[in-house]
Amino acid sequence: MLAAFVNLWRLKHLRKRILFTLFMIAVYRIGTYVQVPGMNAALLTSSQQQNALFNILNLFSGGAFYRFSIFAMSVMPYITASIVVQLLQSGVIPRFEEWAKEGESGRRKLTQVTRYLTVAFGILQASGITYGFVREGVLYFHDWWSYVVIVLALTAGDTLLMWFGEMITEKGVGNGISIIIFVSIISRFGQIGQEIYQNWFYAHPGPLFWSVVKVILLVAGVVALFALIVFVQQAERRIPVQYAKRVVGRTIYTGQQTHIPLKVNAAGVIPVIFATSLLFLPYAVAMYFSQRAWAAFIMRYLSPQSSWYIALEIVLIVAFTFFYTHIQINPQQLAEQLQKHAGYIPGVRPGLETEQYLIRVINRITVFGSLFLGVISVLPYTILRGISLTSVYMGGTSLLIIVGVALQTLQQMEGQMLQRHYRGFIR
């Protein structure tokens, strides 16, 4: 592992990408401390124990939400916009579906639409949050222009983060938006550990032996959970494929055996991020109309502390996993490519039967993968609530994102190193 890290810095191209990514992360972390004007920090800090959804926003923004900095909304509006655009590609808007099939030019058009929607959702979310804080006395100003300035500052911060993510994806390593969320969650680990100590150990002192046992069980549980997540994220179903002997021009291609690797969780952490963002949107709108009956209903039942929220999050994660898996893996296209290159699955006829076979296999493994994502996403928070640590928020969503982004980034660097005959990290 140490040799792999040394080799990592020998590659000039990869070294520049890593340094660029670190620079963008440093700028982002500095920006989380740039506060918008007119905030009463003491009241905002004291209110963090009263709203579990605020704890989620604070976690995903790396503490920027409770400082009410320009990056307080993190990348939530961008993620929501991405969800909407991907859903509209599935036959809802034919033009979007055509763009999705046009390759690079169509992707640029869809990216532009996503940017516009990000600004629109950012304005909506910033307006709701600002209005809610004004009603609670956290923000104070005397005219409507100050309200506009705060909303524009929050929206500009969200748009800047979107640009940071695109630049990291293009010139850095890993997926930029995922890297930003990853850094935000990691930056909160120290504070979460402090809260666990104060609420579990310091507030309830006991014999030293039992304190040591608690620490050992806590560390062992976290390590076991991480190991389980890594195991499932790396698990795959290998479908054997046989290629027949064929002649192309004067070249003879002999038959060979290979396999199609289908990951148990092909969608990665995208369904978890999508579900969390989608559940937050109605809550943000309800904050703007908090006096209405329907808004009170949403704020009551879509609070992360409610059982309805947990159940709905699992359902959305399962649905988004199936949806995104079939976007990532197209059985019809895969079957056509096999037939085109004289390949077939032993015991399955090429063409339609191969497509149907692939659909059945993908659906079976996705059932397990989606249920795993759903259960893991709510398990840590449920355990913390069961041992009376309700003031500490650490959902499985955070752990899934950490593992998923770390593996994705390592695999990208692994590919860069293997291309230049260097041994990588993953063995």
Task: Write structural notes for this entry.
By secondary structure, this protein is mainly α. The protein has a domain at 1-187: SecY subunit domain (Preprotein translocase SecY subunit), CATH 1.10.3370. 70% of the residues lie in helices and 6% in strands. The chain contains 18 helices and 5 strands. The protein has helices spanning 2-8, 12-31, 41-46, 52-60, 64-67, 76-88, 94-101, 104-135, 144-171, 176-187, 189-202, 208-234, 270-288, 293-301, 307-328, 331-340, 352-386, 396-419, and strands at residues 236-243, 246-248, 251-253, 256-263, 343-344. A 3-stranded antiparallel β-sheet has the order 4-1-5. A two-stranded antiparallel sheet has the order 2-3. Helix 8 runs antiparallel to helix 9 (144-171) and helix 12 crosses helix 18 (396-419). The protein is globular, with a radius of gyration of 24 Å. 32% of the residues are buried.
Topology:
Blueprint: H1 2-8, H2 12-31, H3 41-46, H4 52-60, H5 64-67, H6 76-88, H7 94-101, H8 104-135, H9 144-171, H10 176-187, H11 189-202, H12 208-234, E1 236-243, E2 246-248, E3 251-253, E4 256-263, H13 270-288, H14 293-301, H15 307-328, H16 331-340, E5 343-344, H17 352-386, H18 396-419
Antiparallel strand pairs: 1-4, 1-5, 2-3
Helix pairs in contact: 2-9, 6-8, 6-13, 7-8, 8-9, 8-13, 9-10, 10-18, 12-18, 13-14, 13-15, 15-17, 16-17, 17-18
Transmembrane segments: 18-36, 64-88, 116-133, 145-165, 172-189, 209-232, 266-288, 308-327, 365-384, 390-410
Organism: Alicyclobacillus cellulosilyticus
Protein name: Protein translocase subunit SecY
